[in-house]
Design a protein that fits this description.
globular; FAD/NAD(P)-binding domain; five-stranded parallel β-sheet; 549 residues; alpha/beta; 24% strand; 30 strands; 4 domains
Length: 549
């Protein structure tokens, strides 16, 4: 069997390596149009920031070592120009010229390319020289060159994962960085209130954030935005999204789907039975919402490559639907998510429940404990739908556990029973994930009723807004119209609360108000507790304040 692979990074190389392990007899040739194969594109921002010191550390494999270890014929600087499906050949261009290569099986792993928006000035050489994208090692080399030449200011167009990673990297190199995004938040895959701590982290690190605007022009010194703001920029990074690179597939008449991505079946096969596809160029079904879209993640591409190789060589293997599990570090903060966000569920008109909690990453009595901000979404019958987390430590562990539970089809209430590793430096006897399960049990059983930050402006009148924090906390900052009865005094002062009005209790994180709600509900009160407490409320109030600016 002669197998040709177009694209030698992530999915393509994962397929080729797995295919060789399954068949010593197959003739496997990989064509990569760039000079490097199997490089660590996810590590590029950390190379720019200086954490990865040696550039060669990004080059995971070379054609030579792949030939030696896996007997793969890897050809760099070879661009595939076209596919002849009838003749089962591809047309390849290299320094030696153009030639046809026959195949029995063709695997496309052409990836995605950064979107280049229509911005005035990009066609000018002086502007083009300092306007970059970041996709591969040569891109990183060009950015590094601009920085070494003395760049002092940078504008990042796009506040997504790559944009924020590069913003951190360039800031650490001493540049004044501004992040611009047309949305009203950074990290749009997160819900707005969960992205708020990330924005605060950026601002605290000296990175400027300009939201609700896009670039309309770039001149020799500035970036001009839609709101007429001019931002000085020695370097401009375009990071507004990616598009699937499917020109080759389109020209060959293969079926395309969402946003021009390649349409494949559950095995990874395209509309041509001899052509398979993996990676960022392929449309993917979401495991939670059943929506089909793009999920440009390296881990997913690698899993697709392995699954396609298994299927090709007779293993029972399907390309799994995607959860979209992702994580990003922004200076000292980590943000991660898995499954569906609230905004996606609302757009789908999907019924769901949500909880917020702010547990410590490890035992509070052990030095260095930090809060994790967790948001978990689930259906009324307890089916896990998604989770988001932001914090300085332990975020990856919690999101990975919940992602595993999602993949396994567990109910949110079952998280309470998970047996997770515990030692004071690493967690608590009741881990944050266990607490998610306990809170969900309380909500679904009716042991607690939540009200949410977005409900503040529409609370019924008359109602009692009850602050159960300490007097000092109440004096420092409280919601307008609230009364203060610390939860430790509640049993003795219950007569001060009218029995004919609904009670909306709150505290700092939601735990004390939950205790108060249990006391009051068992005494006949109609009581709700603020999900996530003032920690979540303050994030919402910041969003509302920005909307009034």
């Amino acid at each position: 069997m002669r197998i040709l692979v177009v694209g030698g990074v992530a999915g393509g190389m994962s397929f080729a390596a797995r295919a060789r392990r399954l068949s010593e007899n197959a003739d496997i040739v990989v064509f990569e149009r760039g000079p490097f194969v199997s490089f660590a594109n996810c590590g590029l921002p950390y190379y720019l920031g200086g954490e990865i010191v040696e550039r060669d550390a990004l080059l995971l494999h070379t054609p030579q070592d792949l030939a030696a270890s896996l007997r793969l014929d890897v050809k760099v600087n070879h661009e595939v120009l076209s596919i002849d499906r009838d003749g089962q050949t591809i047309n390849v261009r290299s320094e030696a010229g153009t030639r046809a290569e026959p195949y029995d099986v063709l695997v496309l792993s052409t990836g995605s390319a950064p979107v280049v928006p229509p911005i005035a000035g990009l066609d000018r050489p002086s502007v083009a020289r300092r306007t970059m994208t970041l996709r591969d090692v040569p891109d990183a080399d060009r950015i590094e060159s601009i920085v070494r030449q003395g760049a002092r200011t940078a504008v990042i167009l796009g506040g997504g994962f790559i944009g924020l990673e590069v913003a951190e990297a360039l800031s650490e190199r001493g540049l004044q960085v501004t992040v611009v995004d047309v949305a009203d938040q950074v990290l749009t895959p997160l819900d707005a209130e969960m992205a708020q701590p990330v924005q605060r982290e950026l601002l605290g690190a000296g990175v400027k954030v300009h939201l609700g605007a896009a670039a309309v022009a770039i001149d020799d010194h500035d970036v001009v935005l839609t709101d007429s703001t001019r931002l000085p920029a020695d370097l401009v990074l375009l990071s507004v999204g990616v598009r699937p690179e499917t020109d080759l597939a389109r020209d060959a008449g293969l079926e395309l789907g969402v946003r021009g991505a390649l349409r494949v079946d559950t095995h990874g096969r395209t509309s041509d039975p001899n052509i398979w596809a993996v990676g960022d160029a392929v449309e993917v079904k979401n495991a939670v919402t059943d929506q089909v879209g793009l999920v440009p993640l390296a881990g997913l591409a690698n899993r697709q490559g392995r699954a396609v190789a298994d299927r090709l060589f007779g293993r029972t293997s399907d390309v799994p639907p995607a959860l979209g599990t992702a994580i990003v570090r922004v200076f000292g903060l980590t943000a991660a998510m898995t499954g569906a966000s609230e905004k996606v569920l609302v757009a789908q008109n999907r019924d769901f429940r949500k909880i917020y909690l702010h547990p410590n990453d490890h035992a509070g009595y052990f030095p260095g404990a930090e809060s994790i901000h967790l948001k978990v979404l689930f259906s009324p019958d307890g089916q896990l739908l998604g989770a988001q987390a932001v914090g300085r430590a332990g975020v990856d562990k919690r999101i990975d556990v919940i992602a595993t539970a999602l993949r396994a089809g567990m109910r949110v209430t079952q998280l309470a029973e998970l047996e997770l590793a515990y030692s004071p430096p690493y967690g608590s006897a009741k881990d944050a994930v266990n607490m998610v399960g306990c809170m969900a049990q309380n909500l679904l059983r009716g042991d607690v009723k939540f009200w949410y930050a977005e409900d503040l402006a529409k609370l019924p009148d008359p109602a009692v807004l009850l602050d159960v924090r300490s007097r000092r906390e109440f004096t420092s900052a409280a919601l307008p119209g609230s009364v203060n009865i610390p939860h430790t005094e509640l049993r003795d002062r219950m007569s001060e609360i009218p029995t004919d009005r609904p009670v909306f209790a709150y505290c700092a994180s939601g735990f004390r108000s939950y205790l108060a709600a249990r006391v009051l509900s068992q005494s006949g009160y109609q009581v709700s507790t603020l999900a996530g407490g003032m920690t979540t409320m303050n994030a919402w109030l910041n969003i509302a304040d920005r909307g009034r600016e």
